[in-house]
Amino acid sequence: xNGITEKLLGIVSDWAGSFNGAxxxxxxxxxxxxxxxxxxxxxxxxxxxxxxxxxxPGTKGESVSIPACVTHGDVDDLVxxxxxxxxxxDVTIVAGCGVHxxxxxxxxxxxxxxxxxxxxxxxxxxxxxxGTGGGSGKRSIDPVTxxxxxxxxxxxxxxxxxxGVDDTTRTTRATLAAGAKLYIRERLxxxxxxxxxxxxxVFLDGEDSGVDLISRSxxxxxxxxxxxxxxxxxxxxxxxxxxxxxxxxxxxxxxxxELTANSGDAALIHEAAIGKIAGEQLLKLRTLGLTEEEAEAxxxxxxxx
Amino acid sequence: xNGITEKLLGIVSDWAGSFNGAxxxxxxxxxxxxxxxxxxxxxxxxxxxxxxxxxxPGTKGESVSIPACVTHGDVDDLVxxxxxxxxxxDVTIVAGCGVHxxxxxxxxxxxxxxxxxxxxxxxxxxxxxxGTGGGSGKRSIDPVTxxxxxxxxxxxxxxxxxxGVDDTTRTTRATLAAGAKLYIRERLxxxxxxxxxxxxxVFLDGEDSGVDLISRSxxxxxxxxxxxxxxxxxxxxxxxxxxxxxxxxxxxxxxxxELTANSGDAALIHEAAIGKIAGEQLLKLRTLGLTEEEAEAxxxxxxxx
Lengths: 305, 305
Hints:
The structure is a homodimer.
Chain A: H1 3-12, E1 22-27, E2 30-35, E3 40-44, E4 50-55, E5 60-65, E6 68-70, E7 75-85, E8 90-94, E9 97-100, E10 107-117, E11 122-132, E12 139-141, E13 144-149, E14 154-161, E15 167-176, E16 181-190, E17 195-204, E18 209-219, E19 224-233, E20 237-247, E21 252-261, E22 266-275, H2 279-287, H3 292-304
Helix pairs in contact in A: 2-3
Family (chains A, B): Belongs to the iron-sulfur cluster assembly SufBD family.
Protein name (chains A, B): ABC transporter permease
InterPro entries (chains A, B): Fe-S_cluster_assembly_SufBD (IPR055346), SUF_FeS_clus_asmbl_SufBD_core (IPR000825), SUF_FeS_clus_asmbl_SufBD_sf (IPR037284)
C-alpha cells in the first residue's frame, strides 16, 4: 500500500493505521488488504471486478470499510460491490473514495454499489469523496448506488464530496417495501471548472414507506451543478426532498426535483432554494472582525456541516 | 350567436348581455361580434386565423374581452391572437374559452396568445376554461401563452380550468426585461378520466426582474395531472414557484419544477406538496354537520378559490 493511499484513507474512511472490523482496501484496481469477521464475509466476485459482502442476519454494532483509492493518472477503475445485509442486522458501512493524479493523465473511479437490506435491517452508509494531487489530469468519481429495502429496513446514506473532484455523476436508485425508510444526506462542494451531476430516484412501493432526502451544495468559481430527483409514491407513503444550493462567484446550479403521486394516500413534499449568501450574514461576521473571505468560508462550512 | 355561446360567455368571461369595452367573440372559428374603442384596436390577421390587438400607450382602466367558444362536435379551432400593449398602459384582458359537444364528435380550441408588453405596462390577464355538454366527444383546450415583458412591465396572469375539459396541454413561456414582474395564479380541477399537462418556462433576463408562480390543482376520479415548470435566472433576479395538489379518489399527479441559476445573484425558490385532504380537516367539518362529500367539496372550493 503506497503513501498516497494511506493519506487518502485517512481522509475518506475511518482508517487510523488499521481498521476496526471487516475491511477491503482497493488501490488502483487491486486489493491492498482485506479482513472478514465472524459475521461479515468479504469475497471477490468471480465474474466482474468487485466484492460480495455478506452480513449475517442479526449482526449488531459492527462496521465494514471498503475504501477505494486511485493514486496516479491513467487509471480508470470500475468496481461492482454487492452488500447482502441479513434480516435484523444493524451495521455501518464506510465506502470512501479518493482519486489522486500528479501528472496530466486522468484518474477515475466508478463504483457500482448494490445494497440488499433484509427485513428490519438497519444500515448507516457513509461515503466520502475527494480528489487530490497537483497534476492537470481530470479527477472523476462516478458512484452508482442501488438499494433494495425489505419490509421495515432502514438505510441512512450520508455522502460528502469534499473537493478536488473535477467531474462527478452521482446516481442513486432505491426501492422501498412496506415500512422501510430511507434517509439521504448529500453535501457537495464544487469550485474552479468542476462539474457535478446528481440524480436520485426513489420508489415508495410498500405501505408506510418513507424517504427524506436533503441535498446541500455550494458552487464556487465557474463550477456547475445539476441536481435531479424523482420520488414516486405508489401507495400510502411519505416523501420529502429538499435541495439548497449556495452560489458564489460565477457558479451555476440547476435543481430539477420531481414528485409523482400514483396513489391518493401518497404525501409528497419538496423544497428548493438557490441563491448566494445573504448580505446581512456576511456583514454580521465581518462586524465580528472576519474578512469577507473568512466570513464566507465560515458560512459555507456551517451550511455543509 | 347561438344560445350555447351565450351560456358559455356568461361562465368564462364578464359577459352580461354585452361587454364593457373592446371585445371580439369567436364562435366555432368565426367572428360573432367585435368592437374596438378609441384606445384599443382589434383587427383580423391577414395571414393566419386570429387577431392583432393594439392597445395604445398610456391607455388606463380599460378592458378587452376575446372569448372563444366551440359549441358543437367536429370542430378543431386554432387561433393566433397577438396583444401589443403600449408603454405605460394599464388594462385588463379577458380570454375565456368554452368547449361544448353534445354528440360523439370531439370539440377542441387551441389559442396561441402572444403578449408584447411595453415599458411599464401593466396587464391583468384572466383566462377561464370550461367544457360542457352531454356528448361523449372529447373536449380539449390547449392554450399557448407567450409573453415578452419590456423594462418595468407587470403581467398578472390568472388562469382557471373550471371542469369538464377532457384533455388540456397548457404551455406558457415568458421573457422578462429589467424590473419586469410576472405573477401567475393557476387553478385546475380534473375528474373522471381527464388529463391535464401544464408547462411553464420563465426567463429572468433583466436585472431585478421577478416571477411568482402559484399553481393549485385537484385531481379527482381517475384523472391525471402533470405539472412542469422551469425558471431560469440569468442575472440579479428573484423567482418563486409553488405547486400544491390535492388528490382524491384515484387521481395521480406529477410535479416537476426546475430552477436554474446562471448567476450568483439569482435567488430562486420552489415548494411543492402533493397529498390528500388531511383527515382532521374533514373530521372538523363533519363535526359541524356536513357529510363527507360536502366537507370535501368545501375544502376543495376553498383551496381553488
